[in-house]
Design a protein that fits this description.
Length: 235
């Protein structure tokens, strides 16, 4: 929560007490870029222009050493409660739309929905073995949100990825085990099996449903854990 509050205050740097003019000089563009990087983390709060004005005003007074109009210490709990409530409300709305997306995916594309809530469709059947949870897998993937925006893609980076299957989001751990090497599947993963209500800002909002197109390129057995060192002998 403290991290979110800090980012919120820094993000206010990108806003004026009213809608700012377009940056023209290189210095203005540099500060604007800094603002957008941090300001994007405020999207989960769904702040109004008036709320952003208040946020920026408080930051400005504090940064200039002017008399503060409100005692921040007296408002710490209210700040935390408000931010938490805003993020939870946003997550509920996002999850509702995500669930509708999953239901439509199952109905319109004939996808399978598991007991956990994961929905998947085999795009291309593989012929090799299926990975176990303890295996290391090599994949190519393309991740999007329900609105089609890309948040991560090894395909776009043109770089295959390998990772232990038990160290990723639960939707991946479950979904990859339904595949065979050489196959390609489409996963629609609810937030409970992804990043939950917290999300992964700035690209993934709290409660977000994630869509992945995944190609399983290979399986490597996990490296055995190192044996514990022998106990010292008694003298």
């Amino acid at each position: 929560m403290k991290k979110i509050l800090l980012l919120a205050l820094i993000g206010a740097l990108s806003f004026g007490c009213s809608k700012g003019k377009d940056p023209k000089t290189e210095e203005e563009k540099t500060f604007y870029a800094v603002g957008t990087m941090f300001g994007s983390r405020l999207t989960q709060l769904a702040l109004t222009d008036a709320e952003l004005d208040s946020l920026a005003a408080g930051l400005r007074d504090s940064a200039k050493g002017e008399k503060q109009k409100v005692d921040p210490m007296a408002y710490q709990q209210k700040i935390q409660d408000m931010f938490k409530a805003r993020m939870e409300k946003m997550a509920v709305d996002v999850k509702k739309k995500g669930n509708e997306f999953i239901d439509n995916f199952v109905k319109s594309e004939g996808a399978t929905k598991t007991a956990s809530g994961l929905a998947f469709k085999v795009v291309k059947e593989g012929t090799g073995p299926s990975p176990k949870e303890t295996d290391v897998v090599k994949v190519h993937y393309h991740g999007t949100l329900t609105d089609g925006s890309v948040f991560d893609s090894s395909v776009e980076r043109k770089q295959e990825v390998s990772f232990p299957l038990n160290r990723v989001i639960r939707g991946w751990t479950e979904g990859l085990q339904t595949m065979k090497v050489g196959g390609k599947s489409k996963f629609v993963i609810p937030s409970e099996l992804a990043y939950g209500d917290a999300g992964a800002p700035p690209k993934i909002a709290g409660g977000a449903t994630l869509i992945f197109e995944v190609e399983l390129l290979g399986i490597e057995k996990a490296a055995p854990e190192a044996a514990p060192a022998p106990a010292p002998k008694k003298k």
